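Posting here for the record, re: 2-acetamido-2-deoxy-beta-D-glucopyranose.
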Amino acid sequence: MDKILLCSFLLVSSGSQASRTLTQTNAKFAVDLYQAVSLSHKSNIIFSPLGATMLLGMVHLGARGKAQQQIRQTLKLQETSTGGEFSLLKSFFSAISEKKQEFTFNLASALYLQEGFTVKEQYLHGNEEFFQSATKLVDFQDAKACAETISTWVENKTHGKIKNMFSEDDFGPLTRLVLVNAIYFKGDWKQKFRKEYTQLMNFTNKDGSIVEIPMMKALLRTKYGYFSESSMSYQVLELPYKGDDFSLIIILPAEDVNIEEVEKLITAHQVLKWISEMQEEEVEISLPRFKIEQKLDFKEAFFSLNITEIFSGGCDLSGITDSSEVYVSQVMQKIFFEMNEDGSEAAASTGVQIPVIMSLTQTQFIVNHPFLFIVMNNPTESILFMGRVASPDSPKMKRRDLDSL
Ligand SMILES: *[C@@H]1O[C@H](CO)[C@@H](O)[C@H](O)[C@H]1NC(C)=O
Ligand SMILES: *[C@@H]1O[C@H](CO)[C@@H](O)[C@H](O)[C@H]1NC(C)=O
Ligand SMILES: *[C@@H]1O[C@H](CO)[C@@H](O)[C@H](O)[C@H]1NC(C)=O
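Prediction output follows.
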């Protein structure tokens, strides 16, 4: 049954009703997951909704009964669907593999199962084909060796960008099945920032403390919007990456507005509204140079989205293995994301860039306090990353970095 369901992938053309529904569903899942994750993460956040969908897809493929049903409900997969459940991922993979030269995208995705269980042949193939994911056997009893094995594999798959994903404390005698997803993304801006315009500015962290950080500056013609909701106002800006396949969308609350208050208001509908309502404008931009690296276990967040069965003993994962002793122990994701001027190539810029003496007439977008961001994959209209920068402080960002420019 599942073989049939999953074999007939539809590549839904964008603009069609089906694709709009898919986009909304994906955005809703992304926003719901963000809300769930933010409950337990008060500082910086980054995670990949697309990666989380992939992880759930991997379990869904091998789950039956209630375990599968809960995933279908949360991802709003159609009961009567005759294919295309995860077509978004398939379109995404084909879109990125065609455009490899325009950005760096490294993905490591796998299902690790305790040695001694037998993985069904059909699952091995399905997992590889639909999710480009590996299925591997390890001995979780030897936690140290196991952490090393998986971390090394992730490091290798992400070309050294994501290291030490696991430590021996992550596994115990009861660990049976662990889902792993690691993503490194780095794109060049379509319109680059010039390093010589970067200057130190004060940034007010979420906790109210003030740090001096390198702020990239440019005057660019780009999509911009000013929105107001429940008497809270915020600005939204879109910065496309080279090739236009990905865009960074930054949501900046007004200075007197608490970021958590804005977060509570965000819905999928709104995210899509921003995207459709932003207009091209000339904007003076000040944007922190930052990087975030974060490892998350989605278990708790999935629980609050009503995906519980896959974590309990006796759940039906008979599409993966025949044993009834197998359930999901952890759903781990690690993301590395960085943002800089990207002057790694000669700046053949199309933007008008100025050594920024802020004028009063221009629209200004000054990111000197906490903000939210989304990285969209434009062809599939799916959310690759979503996050919050509460304090962009990072050891690399010291004055001497700037002085060495
Ligand atoms: C990853 O592993 C393969 C095969 O073991 C090896 O050929 C390759 O050089 C490794 N790549 C990195 C980046 O370590
Ligand atoms: C940051 O704020 C401190 C204290 O208000 C001030 O002394 C410092 O000059 C400011 N730094 C910058 C780069 O504006
Ligand atoms: C989870 O289930 C509860 C009870 O059925 C429901 O009230 C809640 O809306 C569900 N949450 C989500 C995110 O679907």
